[in-house]
Structure formats: C-alpha cells, structure tokens
Amino acid sequence: MSKAISQVPMAVNEPVRSYAPGSAEVKSLLATYKAMWKEKAEIPMIINGKEVQSSEKVRLVSPQDHQHDFGFYYKGTMQDVDSAINTALEAKENWNNLGWEQRAAIFLKAADLLAGPYRDRLNAATMIGQSKNVHQAEIDSACEFIDFLRFNVEFMTEMYSEQPVSDEGIWNRTEYRPLEGFCFAVTPFNFTAIAGNLPTCMAMMGNVVVWKPSDKQILAAKVIMDILTEAGLPAGVINMIFTDGKETAEKVMAHPDFAGLHFTGSTSVFQGMWKMIGNNIHKFKTYPRIVGETGGKDFVVVHSSANVDAVATGLVRGAFEYQGQKCSAASRAYVPKSLWPKVKETMEAQLKTVKMGSPEDPSNFINAVISQGSFDKCKGYIERAEKSADSSVIMGGKCDDSRGWFVEPTVILTTNPNYESLCEEIFGPILTVYVYEDEKWSETLKLVDQTSPYSLTGAVFAQDRYAIAEAYKALENASGNFYINDKPTGAVVGQQPFGGARASGTNDKAGSKMNLMRWVSVRSIKETFVSPKDYKYPYLG
Ligand code: NAD
Questions:
Q1: What residues have CB less than 8 Å from 59, skipping those under 6 apart?
Q2: Does the CB atom of residue 421 touch ligand 1 within 6 A?
Q3: In sequence order, what are the beta bridge partners of 202?
C-alpha cells in the first residue's frame, strides 16, 4: 500500500487534430484506415484476459459498403456470460486491494497510449465500423475517450480527498469502497468514447466488470481492450463479451452478486432492464446501482431576435453531423415566421455544398447510417412525411442503400405540432421544423417543453436577453444540457457534464464526479483515541 498522498497530473482536454488536407496526420490516419479495411479481423471475446472464441462467427460489415466485410466476431453463449461473471468475482479481491495510485496509473497510461500509438487505430476502427468521418472519429474515439480517462482519474482523487471534520479526541474518515459484487456495462454503437468510459470508470473506482458492447461497435471495442491490456489492466477486471443483449441481461440480473448497471442506449431497452432488476430485487445481496443514459428528441428553439447564420449553422451541424446519430442531435426546430424564409435559404445554401459518402474521403461531411434497420426507419419517416397532409419534405429526402446505407440530410416541414417526426426519436439525419407566429414565443416554449417525453439536450438562439432568460426558465426541465446560441451537440468532458432526465436517463452526468459517486459505497469510520471507561454521563450526577 502507498506511503504517500500522491497528486495526479492535472487533466486538460486533449487537443483536437485538424486533419487538414495533405497533412501528415491525415495521411497517417487514412493509411491505417486502408490497412484495417483489408485486415479481415477475427475478434474474440476477452474473459480473464484470454481470447475466447466460439463456434458462431458473425460477419462485420461496414455501413459505407455493406458488401465489404472487414472481419468477423465470435458470438458468445450464456456459458460465456457465466464465465465472465465468475472471472470478475475472482479478480475482485486483488483488484480491490491494489492501491488507487496503481489503478490511476493504468488508466493514465491507457490515455497516453490512445493519444499516441493507438490514436490512428481507434479512429480508423470507428470510421470503418461506425461510419464516422475523420473529424467525428477524432472528437469521439480519440479526444473524448482520452478526456474521460484523464478527468476521471482527477475526479477520483478529488473524491477520495473529500473527508469529514473530526471533533476533539476522534478521527473521522470516509472510505470510498467499490460496490460489493460485480458491475455490468452495456454500451451503444454511436460513441466509442462511451463504450470505453462505461466499463473503465467503474473499474477505476475498484469494481470488476462484465462489459457487453454493441454488436455494431465491435471493431473499436476490440481496440479499446488492446489498449487496456497494454496499459496493464489485470486479467478479469473488465471482461468483454459478445452475447445476446436480452439473454445476457436476464442472466446478469438474476445473479445475487449483481451490484450495478451502467447503460447507455435506447429508452425501451433501459426500461426493460430496470423492470428485470425490480422483479429480482429480493435476489441481490445489495441494492444495485442503476445508471442509464437513454434516448432524446433534442430541440432548437429560435427567437425572432436570433442571428440567421448562427441558427442555420447550428441546425446543419447540430442535426446532421454523424448523420444525426448523436443522442444530442437536434431533431426538432421551432422557428419564427419572420426568420424562417432566411433560415431556410441559408440552410439550403449550406446543404448544397455538403458531400455524402465514405469516410475514406475526408471531404465527405455526411457518411452512412449504422444499419439496414436504421436506413429503413429513416426512409419510412421520409416517405410518410411526403404523403402526409400535415408535412412535406423540403430538403434532401433521397435514400440509397445500393452500396452503403446513405440517407441525405433531410428537413421535414410540418404544420402539426404533434406530427410524429416532431415527437419521436428517429436517430438519423432528419430534422423536423415547425414554424410559429412570432408573437407566440411564450406558447412555443411551452410546446417545446411538452412535446416529447425526453429531456436530453436543447438550444435557444436569441440576441434579446429577456427572451434568453424566459427560455432558460421555461425550459428548465426540458433538457439536461442546455445551450445558448450554440448547437446542442458536442459536450466536452470536464466542461459540460453530459446527461438528461425524464425519459432520457438518470442524469448521472458521464465524465464527472457525480457519475463516479455511483460506483462506490461509502464507509464512514470513527476512531476514538481515548475511549470512555464508565457508562455514567455527567448529567446522571
Ligand atoms: P440500443 O438500445 O439498441 O443498444 C444499446 C445496447 O443495449 C447494445 O449493447 C445492445 O446490444 C444492448 N441491447 C439491445 N437490446 C437489449 C435488450 N433487450 N436487453 C439488454 N441489452 C440490449 O441503442 P443503440 O442503437 O446502440 O444506441 C442508440 C440509442 O442510444 C439512442 O436511443 C440514443 O439516444 C441512445 N444514446 C443515449 C446517450 C445519452 O447519453 N443519453 C448517448 C448515446 C446514445
């Protein structure tokens, strides 16, 4: 155990590389992309630090070219889930006994490995498997994940140093123990950084973890495990399995040692898991911690005093970057009648210059959506909007799945404030616009607040400070992350802690101390130096 009160290096946000055309960094990244595209990866599960194969091989296809399989993964069975749980529980004691500095060093080393030798590999894996362009891959799989690792180490030490006061003759201490049992991380396809953060932040706090990544993020998940292994993470602390989500959840959540769920994904899946936990509550040795960040229907509300170019740019970037597949993506906009013609014209002019295609060509702003299912869902909303009396498709709308799953950035205009695409999460490059009468600003704010069950991100655009203040108050509970004169995407670790409420999640703010608090169980310790030797208090005479 340590004989020093060590301080960790101060966390600073990882600088975002620009990947300017012709630069050495873009050449290096694209060379890695091309090499990995041809590699035909064979991706095993990792249980107890060992590669685990199975008899079922599943093809991995790239969203930008679904005929091209870049490899396969081994799909596991319920036996692998058992083995991952048992292994985690066996690793628990040694991991728990290791000093926090040793744990911190592993994750700080992982951050440095990712910032340096693994940067291209994780970015390229995210470009191939999840269809992110160079910039989207860089801000997610490199910078955000590096930030999560470094800032969480700093938050961990801040937490550990929070100690109670002590009266004379006693010493009070607070100990931040890991949860008793094992933890379960279930991660989505859309952010490599989230896939990395959910299991690692639990492990950083001394927990042992069973991690089930999305089957659409497996190439990058494999690189994450490679980095953690090279950083020295001991075998069994994080066990990565590729198994059926529902069956795995049923098995994990019936285990008496299940101690915590860290989930990011859709609302319905999270609610299903919460029900399972509730139904099994009598089986667990301890009440499990439940953290889930889920769906969104993120808004942009524009006041008549807003700057038109800022609004149009906020909408084009906020709605269409990464094909609208950020949980924070703008998907409904409320624009005053007086500004709409200019906003529309500016958006049209900007969208005319937008290129769509494979991330292999960095000049493509838009790439493919993640799957055939997602493509069909987007196409369905577009086709229904074209036919509906309430709405029309005014920009984009073309879909082409002949080679990859490409959906043009699409704007639907509706006159119905409850139109389906204004209320439901689509998770694709589709923005629905509702134009309101300028004098109905206050009513429109109410509409924004009440239109969907979600409360993840939202933005107001206005120059009038009274309008900003009114929106700030009226939309207090409409989003967990609120933006003023900026797009509702792009939260940065350590700067805008991220998470939503209502149907969008438990709002435990990934990348903050608030989140890490969920993965510890505090022990209060009181030590009395000179113990009383007689039961009689002075008042007894
Ligand atoms: P998803 O819910 O389909 O999958 C998430 C994870 O759950 C995957 O690992 C998947 O395999 C697993 N899973 C699927 N069905 C399951 C079941 N029945 N039981 C247990 N596990 C199951 O989500 P996705 O398509 O990967 O990601 C998109 C969703 O995630 C969107 O709804 C988006 O808003 C949300 N999201 C939210 C945030 C946030 O911070 N609020 C961030 C990213 C993504």
A1: 69, 72
A2: no
A3: none
SS3 content of the chain, % helix, strand, coil (to 5): 40, 20, 35
Q: Is the C-beta atom of 208 inside 6 A of ligand 1?
A: no
Give dist(CA 396, CA 429) in Å, integer. 10
DSSP for 467-497?
HHHHHHHHTTTT-SEEEESS-S----TTTS-
Whole-model pTM: value is: 0.98
Nearest CA to ligand 1 atom 11: 214
Domain ranges of the chain: 26-294+505-523, 298-484
**pLDDT tens per residue across span 432-468:** 999 999 999 999 999 999 999 999 999 999 999 999 9
CA of 389 to the centre of ligand 1 (A): 33
Name the residue of 131, 327, 376 whose CB sits within 8 Å of the most ligand 1 atoms, as the mutation to test its pocket. Answer: 327
Return d(Cα 179, Cα 184) in angstroms, integer: 12
Say yes or no: CB of residue 249 within 6 Å of ligand 1: yes
150 burial (CB, 10 Å; 0-12 / 13-18 / 19+) is buried
Q: How many Å apart are CA 128 and CA 40, to the nearest integer?
A: 12
Separation CA 94–CA 114 (nearest Å):
26
Question: Quick check: CB of 293 below 6 Å from ligand 1?
Answer: yes
Q: Which residues are catalytic?
A: 293, 327
CATH class of the domain at 298-484: alpha beta
Q: How far is the CA of 186 from the centre of ligand 1 (A)?
A: 8
Using pLDDT thresholds of 50, 70 and 90, give the confidence band for residue 1: low
* Domain 26-294+505-523: CATH architecture, name and number where available: 3-Layer(aba) Sandwich (3.40)
